[in-house]
Design goal:
Low-confidence stretches: none
Number of strands: 0
Shape: globular
Strand content: under 5%
Radius of gyration: 14 Å
Structural class: mainly alpha
Number of helices: 5
Helix content: 55-70%
Order of helices and strands: HHHHH
């Protein structure tokens, strides 16, 4: 999956918390959000915050789908609320290889 495809897909699935997302989909979208927020911070802090708020829901949605790919509940994202240890645990969960067979969250994603 390319950078552009991942960003496009995440915006198409803005409120879609069902299904699964492969690693590239999640990490390309994460990179997109991070880079744009940093660039907008140079323009205006308020614009950067508005962008971050606008991409908050799709970020949570793609995070849930990414966790579903590893056969975990999207609720594991609450670990982000625990400083350091929770962040480390989330990064560990998000970088894991997805399951190669269908699981309770759906079929293996195409890309």
């Amino acid at each position: 999956m390319s950078f552009q495809e991942a960003v496009q897909l995440c915006f198409q699935k803005y409120f879609d918390f069902n299904g699964r997302a492969k690693r590239p989909e999640y990490w390309w979208f994460f990179l997109f959000c991070f880079l744009i927020a940093v660039l907008l911070e140079f323009v205006s802090s308020n614009i950067s915050w508005i962008f971050s708020l606008a991409t908050f829901i799709p970020s949570i949605a793609v995070g849930s789908r990414r966790l579903h790919d590893t056969n975990k509940s999207g609720w594991f994202q609450l670990l982000w609320l625990i400083p350091l240890l929770g962040w480390a645990a989330m990064i560990y969960l998000l970088v894991q290889e997805g399951e190669s067979a269908a699981n309770q969250y759906g079929e293996v994603p195409e890309k």
